[in-house]
Amino acid sequence: MAHALSAAGPFRVVGHAGTDRQAMEQVPELDPDVVVVDLSRVTGGLDLVRWLRRQGSRAEVVIVAGAEDGQQRVALGAGARGYVLKEAGFEQLADAIRCAARGDFFVAGTGRDEAADYAAPWVEEQAPGGHITPRERELAVLLSDGYSSKEAAAILNISVRTADTHRASLMRKLGARNLAEVVKYCIRNGLVGT
Fold first, then answer.
1. Tell me, what's the pLDDT at 40?
2. Are 65 and 159 in the same domain?
3. Among 6, 80, 99, 134, which is most buried by a count of CB atoms within 10 Å?
4. Are 82 and 63 in contact (CB under 8 A)?
5. Which of 124, 113, 121 is nearest to 162 (CA)?
6. DSSP β-ladder status, 82-85 and 106-107
């Protein structure tokens, strides 16, 4: 898989680990944009996803599974952004990686809107904290500039449901109770003018 990703163009493989412990040592040092976890090859793969979220890592996670085994919900609940079946092939994995890098969800066999809908219940269960994805940051700026979720969705070329899922995830990560707290985050981080 690593060789195919490296040869595929825009992807650059920066590390390889056989266990969750090896990955826990490498990820902070290598600081990847996306971590691909093959559940059939990495022992403790879902533990790794949970650990990355607890550490506040900016790395998004795509899970590759050997079979349809109901692990999608567990993976998304742990904090993964993508879930692909190994049999689906390289193109679907590449799509999942691109989606995760943008901060979007990807679940094998679903469209973009369905993936966001599928992920929504687990986004609601996430504890505060964690890395704000590029897509969540873009949405935060648009919301801070006074755009509605519907208007922001149109600007970002995503559905309103996807925008709402990103908004819920953003607010949960910030511990924000309302939009004013999202605006404060944007001002404090220089994302919008005062």
1. 80
2. no
3. 80
4. yes
5. 113
6. parallel
Residue 79 backbone zone (phi > 0: left; psi -120 to 50: alpha; other: beta): left
pLDDT score for 141: 87
- Number of other residues whose CB lies within 10 A of the CB of residue 104: 24
Return the pLDDT at 98: 87
How high is the mean pLDDT in each 10-residue block of the chain (194 residues)? Answer: 66 84 90 88 82 84 79 79 85 87 76 53 53 81 89 90 86 82 78 65
- Taking the C-alpha atoms of residue 194 and residue 189, their distance in angstroms, rounded to an integer, is 11
For the chain, the DSSP string reads -HHHHHHTSS-------SBHHHHHHHHHHH--SEEEEETTTSBTHHHHHHHHHHHT---EEEEEESS--SHHHHHHHHT-SEEEEGGG-HHHHHHHHHHHHHT--EETT--HHHHHHHHHHHHHHPPS--PPPHHHHHHHHHHHTT--HHHHHHHHT--HHHHHHHHHHHHHHHT-SSHHHHHHHHHHTTSS--
Structural domain count, the chain: 2
pLDDT of amino acid 35 = 92
Contact 123, 172 (CB under 8 A): yes
Q: Are residues 91 and 7 in the same domain?
A: yes
- If asked whether residues 88 and 167 sit together in one domain, one would say no
Q: Model pTM? A: 0.62
